[in-house]
Amino acid sequence: MKVTVHRKAHFNAAHRLYRKDWSDEKNEAVFGLCNNPNFHGHNYELIASVTGEIDPETGYVIDVKVLKDIIKTEVEDAFDHKNLNVEVPEFKNLNPTAENIAVVIYNKIKPKLDSKFHLKITLYETPRNFVTYSGE
């Protein structure tokens, strides 16, 4: 019997969407206001969903405190109140779109989990704009 456990988290971060190898005009045309050279910020909401079998001894799929601690270390401490383009190494050469941020978060959390678990990341950039990634 598989069950999914969800943990919500939050972080604030600034970013700029642009490609160094494109002209200013092309960056402006493709990314619009998100290409602001002075950056802009979001209040990101994260949902990390872990699916697995219920442990008959504990009744847990995963101890939520363990998941909470992983998210705090790997995501909140690493991204909160940071400029993603400037301060987060994973985005040195990767455009910090919501899609890429979700994949980076997945890649930071997944190795910390037992391989028996399936992980899905849902990242809200705004209340109406969000992405999901599950390693597929």
UniProtKB/TrEMBL annotation:
Its cofactor is Zn(2+). Pathway: Purine metabolism; 7-cyano-7-deazaguanine biosynthesis. Its EC number is 4.-.-.-. The keyword Transport does not apply. Binds 1 zinc ion per subunit. SUPFAM superfamilies: Tetrahydrobiopterin biosynthesis enzymes-like (SSF55620). The keyword Cytoplasm does not apply. It catalyses: 7,8-dihydroneopterin 3'-triphosphate + H2O = 6-carboxy-5,6,7,8-tetrahydropterin + triphosphate + acetaldehyde + 2 H(+). Keywords: Lyase, Metal-binding, Queuosine biosynthesis, Zinc. It is an enzyme of class 4 (lyase). InterPro entries: 6-PTP_synth/QueD (IPR007115), 6-PTP_synth/QueD_sf (IPR038418). Belongs to the PTPS family. QueD subfamily. This is 6-carboxy-5,6,7,8-tetrahydropterin synthase. It comes from Winogradskyella pulchriflava.
